[in-house]
Design brief:
This protein is an alpha/beta fold and about 350 residues long. The chain has 17 helices and six strands. Strand 4, helix 7 and strand 5 form a beta-alpha-beta unit. Helix 12 packs across helix 17 and helix 14 packs antiparallel against helix 16. It binds zinc ion.
């Protein structure tokens, strides 16, 4: 089966829950009576606990990569990154450095999948990405044609269109949609009590209905990027203070840190421009940066739709410039100049 949805929608969480529900030996029966007969899991039996140990995907992945680094050179080449915290649940992440699913990983799945589960009722093979090397995808097709009755293959897809049509036609597709704003806010109230209500409300709007994205939202980094984005836009709108602008663009340097900072700034710029568009379009209730509502209303007042569109194109040019490795502060100064000239 394919579980499709944007980053943070809960694809991996759901895949592990399905594996737990299929194999729980604990209070499953009682729990399913309580929730109207739906399959459920206890979370405390050995099958549940060992499956759940794979949940912190990033940490498990880093451990597997570190373990491979320890190996001798010859063995390193032969070793593919796999995560297995339960003998019958195998998680297959994209293999670095190319971050694609490789033939060796699919071969391991083929090798294991016809083996009857050791401790579970059903074995699970969870591919966390749809980025396959060509031979790997072809090889996977063969298993999808004749999967054993006691095993399930789950593919997690941000964009199911990336899968080979032949793979898609052999799987059933489930979309994980966006959660309503109120549900994300309730989730944040329960799990991120460290944030103030106004901050939770902002994050809920910025995470596009994706629970995982909301829970792990880098709020401080976003607010810092947004501060810089506002300096750029204010400078253009009120012909503001240029020394503040140049002091800010000066901090965008070369290297990996600069690249991340620049991506953050681009995202913040786009989110403000989208909000300005909402205000101009007469639907201010849809803005996401709600804590800036009055400033956005003031800003949008003097702007045309064409200006907002041109600014959005400017942000795309910044992104292209980043890929071509142009000097970041100069690109930003040029962008500010274009904004002011309109
Ligand atoms: Zn259980």
């Amino acid at each position: 089966m394919v579980l499709a949805g944007p980053p943070g929608a809960g694809k991996y969480t759901l895949a592990l829950m399905v594996a737990q529900a299929a194999n729980c030996t604990g209070a499953a029966e009682m729990a399913s009576r309580e929730n109207g007969g739906l399959p459920d899991f206890c979370g405390v039996c050995p099958n549940c606990v060992r499956t759940a140990a794979a949940a912190p995907l990033r940490a498990r992945f880093d451990e597997a990569v570190a373990a491979r680094e320890e190996l001798r050179e010859v063995d390193k080449k032969e070793t593919r990154i796999l995560i297995q915290t339960h003998p019958d649940v195998l998680v297959i992440p994209p293999d670095p450095p190319q971050l694609l699913i490789k033939l060796g990983q699919v071969r391991r799945v083929i090798h294991e999948i016809y083996r009857f589960p050791a401790e579970a009722r059903r074995a699970f093979y969870i591919f966390t990405s749809t980025g396959f090397m060509k031979e790997a995808a072809n090889s996977l097709l063969k298993v999808l044609e004749e999967p054993p009755e006691f095993a399930s293959i789950i593919l997690l897809a941000e964009n199911p269109g990336e899968l080979l049509p032949t793979i898609r036609s052999r799987t059933s597709l489930f979309h994980l949609g966006a959660l309503p704003l109120a549900e994300i806010e309730a989730l944040l109230a329960a799990r991120r009590a460290d944030w103030k209500p106004a901050q939770r409300s902002l994050v809920a709007r910025l995470s596009d209905g994706a629970a995982g994205r909301a829970l792990g939202f880098p709020l401080e980094t976003y607010l810092a990027s947004r501060q810089d984005a506002l300096i750029l836009l204010r400078g253009a709108v009120d012909a503001g203070d240029h020394s503040t602008l140049f002091r800010m663009t000066e901090t965008y340097r070369a290297g990996a840190d600069g690249q991340e900072k620049m991506s953050g700034l681009n995202r913040a710029l786009m989110s403000i421009l989208e909000d300005l568009l909402m205000v101009r379009a007469g639907t201010p209730a849809l803005i996401r940066n709600i804590d800036l509502a009055s400033e956005l209303a003031r800003m949008a007042d003097g702007l045309t739709l064409e200006w907002i569109e041109a600014a959005a194109h400017g942000v795309h040019r910044l992104e292209t410039g980043m890929r071509r490795n142009l000097l970041r502060n100069l690109s930003l100064d040029a962008f500010a100049g274009q904004l002011a000239a309109k």
